[in-house]
Amino acid sequence: MDDPPRSTAPEARLLALAKTGDLDAFEQIVALHERRVFALALRLTGSVEDAKDATQEAFVRLHRKMSQIDSDRGAGPWLYSVTVNACRDIGRDRQRSRLVPVDNLASLSPAAPDASPEGLYADRQREEHLRAVLGRLPEKERAALLLREMEGLSTQEVARVLGSSEATVRSQICTARLKLRKLLRGKL
Amino acid sequence: MSCAVFEERIAQYVGGEPDAELEQHLRACSDCAALARELAEDRDWLASHPPEMADVDYAAIRSEIRREIARPQRAWKWVAAAAAVLLAIGVASTFHRSPAPENHVARAVEQTPAPAPAPDRSLAVTAQKRAPKRSPAPLPVTHDPAVRIELATNNPDVTIILLPELKGDTQ
After folding, report:
1. Which residues, 6+ apart, have CB-to-CB distance to B123 below 8 Å?
2. Which residue of A48, A60, A127 is in closest CB contact with B65?
3. Which helix (H) or strand (E) holds B152?
4. pTM for the model
5. Which of A164, A186, B73, B103 could form a disulfide with A168 if both were Cys (CB 3.0 to 4.6 A apart)?
6. Residue B83, Cα to own-chain centre: how many angstroms?
7. Could you report the per-residue pLDDT of B28-83, keeping only the tens digit for each?
8. Rounded to whole angstroms, how far apart are CA atoms A151 and A158?
9. Nearest alpha carbon to residue A151 among A18, A43, A28, A10
């Protein structure tokens, strides 16, 4: 496994270079964002394989549309938007969900990560449970909540990414928080 | 049980929206305080990264990305478009070379004058009216307003008639 190219320049400079066709600069941009994009895709799709596909697709689309990226804003918001769309496309293409049925899982509460083998196993079980529960939220609510909580986007930024109004996004995030809490604790 | 009236405000407050009145209520109401605490736990959980991320082979993903962007983008579409243009040119030149019959009508396909069922005139008229829009290539240039091209279709009731545009037609 080759190591990711190390980013030695600010993203704006990397974007400017990538726009001229500099593949090394593009790969540094990929290395900057790949983990966040994968994590978002994993919780949006609920599947590691789908998340890999979505991550790949997001960066391929980034390369094709590089000229449209605002270097000052960075590639992040654009990438999250494309990731949400790629996950939606993958979901529609497959026409089936790989999510673990939530009814088969015990109600698990969030807990601090534990590095021991038992702790890692428990963490994975909790994560599976979380993803199963996220899969029961409506698509837009799930995307709005994850963009806010995982990526830390403001309501305005989430609205821009999802093509919705701020009021709609604010309501979607609140509703999703309350539903998630109930689902995670077996109260819904 | 938390106070239903406060639920949405608590969800917003957990997201970082200040609410002094709600804070006062949370100090007095243990149910609402519990709700706020659970929502904050969920928020922190979502902010953490999934444990599977440690197992992901990002180099393999990058390698796939590299391979994908090196591939010519949708080249087949250009090939198909070029083939369509060549076909249209071929069809147009075939008609152009055909010796014009005495009555100045070029027939692409001979229609058998077999006793066919009575044609649906309304359909035929519709097809004739729409014919110019379906033309795949510019008509051969002619100065004879009487020249026209008839294209027989698979439907014996539909014949496409191509008429040359005359000066003043578009005005």
Report:
1. B157, B158
2. A60
3. strand B148-152
4. 0.65
5. A164
6. 21
7. 999 999 999 999 999 999 998 888 888 889 999 999 999 998 887 655 666 677 77
8. 10
9. A43
